[in-house]
Automatic annotation (TrEMBL):
Its cofactor is FAD; NADP(+); NAD(+). It comes from Laspinema palackyanum D2a. It catalyses: 7,7',9,9'-tetra-cis-lycopene = all-trans-lycopene. This is prolycopene isomerase. NCBIfam families: carot_isom. It is found in: Membrane. It is a peripheral membrane protein. Pfam families: Amino_oxidase. One of its GO terms (molecular function) is isomerase activity. Its EC number is 5.2.1.13. Gene3D superfamilies: 3.90.660.50, FAD/NAD(P)-binding domain. Pathway: Carotenoid biosynthesis; lycopene biosynthesis. Belongs to the carotenoid/retinoid oxidoreductase family. CrtISO subfamily. The gene is crtH.
Length: 508
């Protein structure tokens, strides 16, 4: 792997592109460009790559920092963007197929599993809402229409007119299909077919668990991807932990002749005559390149990395439409294997009251990756990574004793609720590390520890999400605050698009 230290003297290396941050968005941009022959420098402030999709080790356990339900590892179509990103730099990862995407534990005893097999899932949901069997099929079948359009075309930059023309002539029906769905939200389509309020609530949590907003605010394009790909390419867990994806991409990047430096925190983006031309690290070291890409959030990019300059109108408009979602309280637990009931699913969602779905500590997310890769924990133990939404403002302005006490109390509340599905959890605990929105802000380098942007109000689907180019010439953004939003496969899409646009701009 490339050098970890940071030179302090002025740099004379000529880079084509500098990427600030090694999240999956940044790494896919970097590897795609390196594969086209560009000389790329990735600067990551942390000691390892991956950002919200990194992994860390404690006491014999390998924990995922954030993401653990992974789309994009399919072996067919065009939406398998993680498989494609790794292939582009000739690296490979073994994955384990997950037979169940989520086991839901919902209010009013609604307990069901989303099976990898589409018909089995429709069967199970239909048995809970027999009077809505037809509406259920119509709604999810319409999601397939979106997915089939996406999965028929190469997913590259929508800011590149020649590509758009080419794709349109090669796949006219798919393109027209997508144009139709672009301004729509999943709730619009769900209400066309489904009337039962309890079932509409279920569609809400189906969206909320990855978009963190209910169906009426969740773009149909994203819903079409998630609700279909889970049955097509499926959910697949990378052997060795989610952090392996970023590690492999970093390895491929270096093999392709580019560079990644860790513990290299960018303090400022250098501009000359209004154009982004380089970056300055907190150490004072400076690097220059023909193009600069920020994988930090748009808030971090424009408020911190660009200094005091006036916010461009385009960013102001974006901020008037989108706000920061909450962060999370996360528990990384090592537990005795006996705690898990036989045949437990890897991912669970727990919610006691529908009206609390969007509230802090309302919905609890659970992931048990050792069910798919036992090597992540010592023999006889499992990992439980559980998290629930929480705002940064509730964790500030307290002494370190108060902070520790508040963490303990929050952990206690989560564990008490999880005892309902994993009786004996508290007694079977071997290890616990508690993260708060402050930890997310610090270790993931994300303003307020936010999960990402969410609409302030009902918007026209995905039409308001910005692409990769910014109002600053030479500066591009990539990652979850660009089209099409949060999630590993989504930020990989953003990375493919960003590299494509830069490749065209640089004539690669
Ligand atoms: C708890 C949690 C659970 C999640 N679960 C899932 C899931 O199951 N499935 C899924 O698909 N997605 C999930 N997600 C979302 C997914 O992880 C993110 O959408 C995605 O990883 C974001 O990738 P990114 O490329 O935008 O940037 P990030 O992952 O945010 O990475 C940005 C990188 O840039 C670096 N950086 C920032 N500023 C600087 C600077 N100034 N100088 C140098 N480096 C800098 C950061 O250190 C970081 O490494 C989850 C997220 C969280 C937090």
């Amino acid at each position: 792997m490339a050098v970890a230290s940071t030179p302090t003297s002025p740099q004379t290396d000529n880079f084509d592109v500098i990427v600030i941050g090694s999240g999956i968005g940044g790494l896919v941009t970097a590897t795609q460009l390196a594969a086209k022959g560009a000389k790329v420098l990735v600067l990551e402030s942390y000691t390892i790559p991956g950002g919200s999709s990194g992994s860390f080790e404690r006491n014999g356990y390998c924990f995922d920092q954030g993401a653990s339900m992974i789309f994009g590892f399919g072996d067919k179509g065009t939406t398998n963007l993680l498989t494609r990103a790794l292939d582009a730099v000739k690296v490979h990862l073994e994955t384990a197929p997950d037979p169940v995407q989520i086991h839901y534990h919902l209010p009013d005893g609604l307990d069901l599993e989303v099976h990898r097999n589409y018909e089995k899932f429709l069967q199970e949901l239909g048995s809970r809402f027999p009077h809505e069997r037809e509406g259920i099929r119509q709604f999810y079948d319409e999601c397939w229409k979106v997915f089939n359009c996406l999965n028929a075309m190469p997913l590259l930059s929508l800011e590149e007119p020649r590509y758009l023309m080419q794709v349109f002539f090669q796949h006219p029906l798919a393109c027209l299909g997508l144009v139709k769905y672009l301004p729509l939200n999943a709730g619009d389509i769900a209400r066309k077919y489904i009337k039962d309020p309890a079932l509409l609530k279920f569609i809400d949590i189906e969206c909320y668990c990855w978009s963190v907003v209910p169906a009426e605010m969740t773009p149909m394009i994203n819903a079409g991807m998630v609700f279909s790909d889970r049955h097509y390419g499926g959910i697949n867990y990378p052997k060795g932990g989610v952090g392996q994806i970023a590690k492999k991409l970093a390895e491929g990047l270096v093999n392709a002749g580019s560079t990644i430096r860790y513990q290299s925190r960018v303090d400022k983006i250098i501009t000359e005559k209004g154009r982004a031309v380089g970056v300055k690290l907190t150490t004072g070291a400076e690097y220059r390149a023909k193009r600069i890409v920020s994988n930090a959030t748009r808030w971090d990019t424009f408020d911190k990395l660009l200094g005091d300059r006036q916010l461009p109108q385009k960013e102001e408009t974006w901020r008037s439409r989108y706000r920061k979602s909450p962060s999370f309280i996360s528990l990384h637990l090592g537990v005795e294997a006996g705690v898990l009931p036989p045949d437990s699913a890897c991912h669970h969602i727990v919610l006691d009251q529908w009206q609390k779905m969007e509230e802090p500590e309302g919905t609890i997310f659970v992931s048990i990756p050792t069910l798919l890769d036992p090597s992540l924990a010592p023999d006889g133990y499992h990992i439980i990574h559980t998290f629930t939404p929480s705002w940064i403002k509730d964790w500030e302005g307290m002494s370190s004793e108060e902070y520790e006490e508040k963490k303990e109390e929050a952990a206690g509340r989560i564990i008490d609720r999880l005892e309902e599905i994993f009786p004996g959890l508290d007694a079977g605990l071997d290890y616990m590390e508690v993260g708060t929105p402050r930890s997310h802000r610090r270790f993931l380098n994300r303003v307020d520890g936010t999960y990402g942007p969410i609409p302030r109000r009902k918007l026209l689907g995905l039409l308001g999400m910005p692409f990769n180019r910014t109002s600053i010439p030479g500066l591009y953004c990539v990652g979850d605050s660009t089209f099409p939003g949060q999630g590993l496969n989504a930020v990989a899409f953003s990375g493919f698009a960003c590299a494509h646009r830069i490749g065209v701009d640089l004539g690669l």
